[in-house]
Amino acid sequence: MKFNFSKFTDNRITRFFRERRKYGPVLFFIGGFLWDSLTLGRIDRIYDISLLSLYMFLLTICLYLYNRVGDEKWKNTFFIKNEVYFPLAIQFFLGGLSSAFVIYFSRSVSLSKTVAFFAILVFLLFANEVFKKRISNRYLQFGAYSFVSFTFFAFVIPVLVKEMNTFIFTLSGIVSLLITLSLIFYIYRHSTSIKNETSKKKLLSVVFAVYATISLFYYFRLIPPVPLALDKGLVAYDIKKSDGKYEVSYERNEWYIFWQNHKTDFTYQSGEKVYVFTSVFAPTDLKKKVYHLWKKYNPITGVWETTDKISFTVIGGRDNGFRGYSYKSNVVDGSWKVEVITDEELVIGVVKFNILSKNYSEKRNSVTRVF
Asked: What is the dotted CATH code of the domain comprising 229-370?
């Protein structure tokens, strides 16, 4: 008995996607983003690692199949009849991986550290409108693949080896680069269609450009040290530790300033201490020395001047991050910030505030939260 694939490949669903294939990649990209937003939690969970690994594997398979179906030997096969689905699948897995990385990055209270990544996501989301062939453009495919592959290994390898530093990040990039190049060379070796439609030299240039760009971002400390993330950061009037819990007193921001919990204008009275409380998320069993780097802005020179550097060791595993704080006495009015950094001086997050000296005859409107 011969199985007839045609009734599955030439039906209403297939015709629906063929007629709307212009919008399909964007919808599948958004679908992957929304799915991950609802299901992912923390990078060191077995579920999260398994799902991301599955996405990378299936994205690799879809890229391979899509770039091979144009060969003569694939004619009249199940894959050529369903090639319309490959761009959708590629876009879905790109969206799934990208959204997962944004979820992990967005745990940081330093919004500026995620802007560059969101910009890349916007590029991936609308790139199909920039390129004439949209997601079928092979340069776009492998450029996006290089990016998500590098980011994937930069997240996963530190989780697996329980260590993170410049060597681990470099190793992640090399592993990603080798896998991407192996895929490209293998496809070129066995596919005649890709040889006729793309320039190997140009394709490799795109891959190396992505690798070099991410490496330079890391070198110039323009990306946060994944998978560490600043979960919370507050400037406070007082901090008390009792039974493993931190009672933090601070002045809450107005409700409409939803992106920052504490007031940036810190009203200071002579003789008080200024506290900065942070919680840094790290994967289970990962230990990393971090610092609170206190800086004051000098309006005359236009430079942030370091006043104090206080260290403590982050121990990973806690859902809401490893908690710690530092404080400073005898401060002066002006713009201040505390950078939470690693040994490599990579910025995990930043807590900014302005100190304003005032004399009070009544109690300030502060709240106390337990972390």
From this structure: 2.60.40.1930
